[in-house]
Amino acid sequence: MDGITRFAIIGLGLIGSSIARAVATDLPDCPVSGYDADPKVRDTARRLDLCARIDEDPAAAVADADLVILCVPVGAMAAAARAIAPGVRTGTIISDVGSCKSSVVEALQNALPGHVVIPAHPVAGTERSGPEAGFATLFRNRWCILTPPDGTDPANVARLSAFWQALGAQIEVMAPDHHDRVLAVTSHLPHLIAYTIVGTASDLEEVTQSEVIKYSAGGFRDFTRIAASDPTMWRDVFLGNREAVLDMLQRFSEDLSALQRAIRWGKGDELFDLFSRTRDVRRSIVEQGQDDPREDFGRTHD
Ligand code: NAP
Hints:
By secondary structure, the chain is α/β, with parallel strands linked by helices. The protein has helices spanning 14-26, 39-47, 58-62, 77-84, 102-111, 154-166, 176-203, 209-214, 220-227, 231-240, 242-264, 268-287, and strands spanning 7-10, 32-35, 53-54, 67-70, 93-96, 116-117, 120-122, 143-146, 170-173.
C-alpha cells in the first residue's frame, strides 16, 4: 500500500487482535508489531501468533511502524499515546479505534504534538473482549469513520482509508463532534437503555430472577447481549462522550414520556404510527446489509 506497509497495534483485545488477524489475511506481506499493557494478553497474543513481533515496551513496538493504531479503552488513550511517544518516528500516522472521538482527538494531539494524528472508529464489534474474541472478518462491509483534525494532509487520510478498505471496511469522513452525536444515538444510548433494562429486571422484587431468565425470549434476551458488553470500555465511552449522550438521553426521555401518555390515554393510533415507522427502520438496516436478513437474527428454532 502507498507508503504504509508496517503496522503497530497497541492494545490486543477484541479490536486490536481482529485488526492483526485481518492484516494477516488481507495484507499478508505487511508485518505487524504489537503491545498490550497486560502481560497475560501479551502471552496469549504470542501463543495465538497474532503478530510478527510482540514487544515488552510500547515505544519499541512502534519504532519502525508507518501506521500505529491504538486499540485501548478511550479512557486509556492518553496514557497509551504518552507511552509510545519516545518511539514514534516523524511522519508515522497515529490512529485509534475509540468509540468516541472529540475527547480522543484532544488526548492524542496533546500527547503527540507535531505528529500526524488521524483518529478513526470502525463501527464493528461484539459484546466479547480480549485477544481470543477477535476474528479476521470483523470489519468486512462495516463502516469505518475517520475524523481527521483540520489541516490534515489529504494524502495521509487517503493512506489510512486504503488500509481500512483493504480490511473490507467502507469509509466515511466526518467531524469528531458530529461523529459523537451520531454514535450517541446509534450506539451509546442503546447500550445505556440495555444496561438499564437488564439492571431494572434484576432488581425487581415481584418477578423472580429465574422468571426473568426463563421468559427472556419475550424480548429481554436481545437486550442482555448488549448489556454483556465490556464494563471498562463502556464506562469510558459514557464519560468520554458525556455531552452528546446526555443530550440524546434528554430527547429519549421526552419521547418516552409521550409514549407513556399515549398508553395512559389509550391513543392506539399514536402507538401504531410509531411502531410502523420503527419497523421501516429495521427493514432499511437489513436492506443496506448491516444485519442478518433472517428473522430473529438467524437463530434456529429446532
Ligand atoms: P478489549 O478487548 O478490552 O481490549 C483492550 C486491551 O487494551 C486490553 O487488553 C487492555 O488491557 C489493553 N490496555 C488498556 N490500557 C492500555 C494501555 N495504556 N496500553 C496498552 N494496552 C492497554 O477492548 P476492545 O473491545 O478491543 O476495545 C478497544 C477500543 O475499541 C476501545 O476504545 C473501544 O471503544 C473501541 N471499540 C470497541 C468496539 C467493541 O465492540 N468492542 C467496537 C468499536 C470500537 P487490560 O484489560 O489489562 O486493561
